[in-house]
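Attaching the record inline, Q. Sequence:
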Amino acid sequence: LSLMEFRQQTLERLKAFVGQHYFSVRDYLDDPRKFMAALECLSWCDYSLGIKAGVHFTLCGGTICKLGTTKHHQALLPRIDTLDLTGSFSMTELGHGSNVMGIETTATFDPATQEFVINTPRNEASKVWIGGSGQHGKLTVVFAQLFTLGKYEGVHAFAVRIRDDDMKVCANVRIRDMGPKQGLNGVDNGQLWFDKLRVPRDALLDAYAAVAPDGAYTSPLPTISSRFGTTVGGLTTGRVLIGQGGVDGQKIALTIAIRYSLDRPQFGDKVVMEYLTHQRALLPALANTYALQIAQRTLKEMVARKNPSEGKAIHVLSSGLKAAATWSRVEALQACRECCGGMGFLSINKIGELANDMNVDVTFEGANTVMMQQVARACLDDRALTSAPAVCPLSRVASAPPGPLPLGHLSALLRFREHALTQQMARAMAVAAKSGTSKKSAEAAAAAVFEANMDVAVDMGWAYTERFCADNFAEAGACAEPASLRPVLRLLASLYGMTRVEKQAAFYLAAGAMDGKDAASLRERIHGVFATLMAEKGRLALALVAGFGIPDHLLQAPVAFDWRAIGAEN
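Structure, as predicted:
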């Protein structure tokens, strides 16, 4: 297919899906679990389809659900539900990606005409990477700096038409198609400019801020920063879905690679999965995928509870999981590609195409480095981590009973790392703050230390996320039903924790929590779990990938079935 044909095919697929009426955009608020499940399943078929649907329903429709009011819901949501009003989300600018507070697009209220004037003041303020706008979009949610009566009120969202119902680009709007990409070419990304575009006063999504006919501004949120937090808070659902997409990509690739590797002999009758290097590449990734999936389930349950007191926890966990899931997806898909040899390089076997399509997920819906920094800041706000010193666990790995390390032992090690890294950063910031001569200069000095130690901040984000995943995995596995699942889940949870500790062996050795004997014992225990998973021709490994529940008709890759038949004459 050509680029345009692929995009049209993706749109037609989305229309077919929407026509089944599995869910409504209103489920974004009314039934979040149903909403997320409906969109997640599309990624198993085609990631372009999943992202195009996500932009339309989550970023555009979901933002209107959350930030709009009845007038917006009645006028726009029914047409979004049917794809009659194809939507996009215009936040990112050429000069501003992660720094949303610094965007330059303006929305100035004109009381004389009861309109907002949306304007792109320079090229760096043009909206870029706007999925769904390059070819198909009619509506976009524009984020802009609001001014009224000469006063700046911060970033707000507006529902803006960019094409009419005949698909003609609206006056004072310019759209440039961004063209072919590394992957995800079923999504029509565009670049947008607004030349003093006038939109009605009601274009402002005004659930949390309103502008009266005389230009008076009101909001129940007293500060620009609090309003900004609420305005961009709707990104959380999208972040959850992107994290889930990272997990699902690993599920697909691991299912293909493990099934193939357990059936593909090399150098005699020995299948390639029997080689330790293959086990090292695939089995820790399998444990990691289970840990992330179970953590995602916990996160979705938190979102569905709609408890305001959990808002910060949801933001922190969704940030950490999104980064961990997508970064580990990059590693896992590369490992799966290599473990399938040349067959992993064939497009028909899906792994390569998945890697290309999903590669963008490490920087969209929040760049991963920024996500981990946000987790780190939350750790610094946790007095339990900053007030008491980090205590090195007394139990040694080499002294533990034979077999997989107990989950409690692993939790103590992972918690120690989270605590120690947070203490390290907090102490350095506190020392710097003391040099300040005023509250403002003290805060600036502490912030400078945080920025100078950003690598530690990212490590803090990883430490929090991995500790959460390990504890959550242990808790979920202990009460799994049927009870017959519990031993293998406990085994997998131990493999997850052990490989996390092994990956950070330098930290534990430097901190005195491990020595050479402990490191050797840890390696031996990990290999012991490999042997258990590989027993009886990999019965448990196969059962665990089957547990992902990916239907064969969506798996598709020939090497996951009868690789011997590839290229054979019928």
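The two ends are 26 Å apart (CA to CA). The longest helix spans residues 516-546.

More tomorrow.
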